């Protein structure tokens, strides 16, 4: 036996055993090495390599949710401060200077004519024309002139003080201070007083409704407003603004709703809340539209199913003159108008419309508007009005 061959075989076998053990030994995990700084080709991983690794890891992880910025929180709207309007008493006195400015041409012209050295037929004709120009009306102007001629003839002398007093007495007599100008707004037991405000477009009807609410609140009354003008989109919003200032709730519905149903709900709200007065603002309808005038009568009938209507106030624009008088006649035929609100009286010298409209309708002027301020609506007083017209200072 060849021992040399055996030795070689054993040596080869030992090498195989040792090599196999080495090959199947598990490899120790290597710690990741930080990338080396530098550009591409410097070290094992440059900046581009790091970017690639980051992009690969981001792709494997999926999209990352990004929190959206929180919407800014708006502060709640500031509450409208409740105002305390001045009472109705003395309002016309406070506004007399404004009235005197607008009627100065009317009053001053009459006083100058009456104080002239000669009062012949031409002078009396001119006095009558001045009265007619101021919208006093032909019949009333003739009566005033006749009364003045008689008094001047009896009196004999015509000092400025005497002339002024003569004219004052004649104008007051024509305006008729004996008419009851009380605006009926008080409750009837548990039922509120109900006031309807009517008139054509552009006379200041909705504004008058809001100002009347201020007058009543200033006198200590509680009020609910009914936005029954559902044809004009801005009317209800306008009324909301007026009501919010004095704490008066507004009953309203969508544009185009039945005005009678709004009026009915407003009175129901007044009954439920136990308020003193409900004021209903109706649509500004053209007096030539017969159907719309009939609808106004419907509103009144529906309201009366719950409570009587105490006042139907017709709002007239003093600057429209004879056209305003025609409007008054048509409204008086549609509903029982109980009082006139004459707006924009500070913007015209034709204050004689007060005399004419009362004579034609037999309805008193109860309120006058003398400006655009919130408290420029005043109860009408015949003597205060005439004194303002004839004011000389």
Protein described:
By secondary structure, this protein is α/β, with parallel strands linked by helices. Among the domains are: 91-175, Up-down Bundle (Four Helix Bundle (Hemerythrin (Met), subunit A)); 193-337, Rossmann fold (3-Layer(aba) Sandwich), CATH 3.40.50. The protein has 14 helices and 8 strands. It has helices spanning 3-24, 47-61, 91-94, 96-114, 121-133, 138-155, 160-175, 205-218, 233-246, 259-273, 290-303, 322-334, 353-361, 382-389; strands spanning 193-198, 223-227, 250-251, 277-281, 311-317, 339-343, 365-369, 377-379. Strands 3-2-4-1-5-6-7-8 form an 8-stranded mixed sheet, sandwiched between helices. β2, α9 and β3 (250-251) form a beta-alpha-beta unit. The longest helix is centred in the N-terminal third of the chain and has 22 residues, at 3-24. The protein starts with a helix and ends with a helix. Residues 27-72 are annotated as: Disordered. Belongs to the GTP-binding SRP family. FtsY subfamily. InterPro entries: AAA+_ATPase, P-loop_NTPase, Signal_recog_particl_SRP54_hlx, SR_rcpt_FtsY, SRP/SRP_N, SRP54_GTPase_dom, SRP54_N_sf. One of its GO terms (cellular component) is cytoplasm. GTP binds at residues 199-206, 281-285, 343-346.
Itemize the secondary structure elements and their pairings:
Elements: H1 3-24, H2 47-61, H3 91-94, H4 96-114, H5 121-133, H6 138-155, H7 160-175, E1 193-198, H8 205-218, E2 223-227, H9 233-246, E3 250-251, H10 259-273, E4 277-281, H11 290-303, E5 311-317, H12 322-334, E6 339-343, H13 353-361, E7 365-369, E8 377-379, H14 382-389
Parallel strand pairs: 1-4, 1-5, 2-3, 2-4, 5-6, 6-7
Antiparallel strand pairs: 7-8
């Amino acid at each position: 036996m060849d021992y040399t061959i055996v030795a070689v075989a054993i040596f080869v076998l030992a090498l195989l055993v040792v090599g196999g053990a080495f090959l199947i030994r598990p490899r120790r995990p290597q710690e990741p090495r930080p990338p080396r700084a530098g550009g591409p080709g410097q070290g094992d991983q440059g900046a581009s390599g790091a970017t690639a690794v980051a992009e690969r890891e981001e792709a494997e992880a999926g999209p990352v949710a990004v929190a959206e910025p929180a919407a800014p929180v708006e502060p709640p709207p500031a509450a409208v401060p409740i105002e305390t309007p001045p009472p109705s008493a003395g309002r016309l006195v406070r506004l007399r200077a404004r009235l005197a400015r607008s009627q100065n041409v009317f009053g001053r012209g009459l006083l100058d004519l009456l104080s002239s050295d000669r009062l012949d037929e031409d002078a009396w004709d001119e006095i009558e024309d001045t009265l007619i120009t101021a919208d006093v009306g032909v019949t009333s102007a003739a009566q005033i002139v006749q009364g003045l001629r008689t008094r001047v003839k009896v009196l004999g002398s015509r000092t400025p003080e005497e002339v002024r007093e003569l004219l004052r007495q004649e104008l007051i007599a024509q305006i008729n201070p004996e008419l009851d100008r009380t605006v009926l707004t008080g409750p009837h037991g548990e039922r509120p007083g109900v006031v309807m405000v009517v008139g054509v477009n552009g006379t200041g009807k909705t504004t008058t409704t809001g100002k009347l609410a201020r007058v009543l609140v200033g006198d200590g009354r509680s009020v609910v407003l009914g936005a029954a003008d559902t044809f004009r989109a801005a009317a209800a919003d306008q009324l909301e603004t007026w009501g919010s200032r004095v704490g008066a709730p507004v009953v309203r519905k969508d544009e185009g709703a039945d005005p009678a149903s709004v009026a009915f709900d407003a009175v129901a709200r007044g009954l439920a809340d136990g308020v003193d007065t409900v004021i209903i603002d109706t649509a500004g309808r053209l007096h030539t539209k017969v159907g719309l005038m009939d609808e106004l009568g419907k509103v009144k009938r529906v309201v009366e199913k719950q409570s009587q209507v105490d006042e139907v106030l017709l709002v007239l624009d003093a600057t429209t003159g004879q056209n305003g008088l025609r409007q008054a006649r048509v409204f008086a035929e549609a509903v029982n108008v109980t009082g006139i609100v004459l707006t924009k009286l500070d913007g015209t010298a034709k204050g004689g419309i007060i005399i004419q409209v009362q004579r034609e309708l037999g309805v008193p002027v109860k309120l006058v508007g003398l400006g655009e301020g919130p408290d420029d609506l005043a109860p009408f007083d015949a003597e205060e009005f005439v004194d303002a017209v004839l004011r000389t200072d």
